[in-house]
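Quarterly update from the structural biology core.
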Amino acid sequence: MKILFYSREFVKIHDAILSEMSGYEVDTADEGTIEEKIGLAEVLVTRPGGGVGAEILRAARKLKLQQQWGTGLEGLDLTTCRELGVTVCNVPSQGTGNAEGVAEIALLHMLLLGRKYAFAQENARNGKLFSPSGISLWRKTACVVGLGNVGRTIAGRLAAMGMNVKGVNRSSVEPSRLKEAGIKESFLLDQLRDVVSGCRFVVAALEFNNETRGFFDESFFRAMDKNSFFINVARGGLVDEEALLRALDEKRLAGAGLDVLAEEPPHLDNPLLNHPLVTLTPHIGGLTDEARKGILDFIKDNIARLARGEELLSKVV
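Predicted structure, tokenized:
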């Protein structure tokens, strides 16, 4: 079976992919080589946001499966895949290392902000001890917005830190799942602006789509407490960045931790990149050793199922 991994990132780790996909005919392609290589591919592996358009899909005469690397469906031309009879699958976040990695990056930003890490580093370099005094996560209230696999995984980590965790979701969640994640109270999305009052940390783990684009807007940031922190480990498009910037500049927020931005890679003049109240990571939440292994194992299993004619896992189309 011929498998094509498509993205510049995959091309960079071409040899590693070959070694981990023994037993298959494997190649990698980027924007410059996809057209010449797609015709022979039976499986196309794409990263979130890096799918191919209708023209490329129509040229993929042997394509049976487009397998997304991760959970995000951005960049997938689902309409054309349906038309051509190409199955589309993604990778569940929980249990593959993805959700677990994103939960850890959320916790990292909360700790960096709460313990004033940049200021602490500066003091350490200048020989100053016992300053600054930080904010403990223990006993604080956190609100996790979006209670899918990632949101519940985040909530479980925060509960283990001794935090009081509230959850907000578009629809009701089974009580057993809430209890397993350590979520003491849950609310619907239209209640969010009332729920965030009294929450020291608000973590965005919401699915990004046309309905949620710019969801975290001016009215949301005005509803947050002045001593609270906003964390986004989902998608940058969920946030009205101008509204976030105003909230930070006007000291209506204590800070923000961002693993994602609305435009990626960002313009270097984006004021959030160097804002003193912002901690930044370059969309690395799910980029860990365990996530790479877990996602690749899932993809290899799906490809093996395809070869055996068995039902594929995590089908989207």
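DSSP finds 13 helices and twelve strands in the chain.
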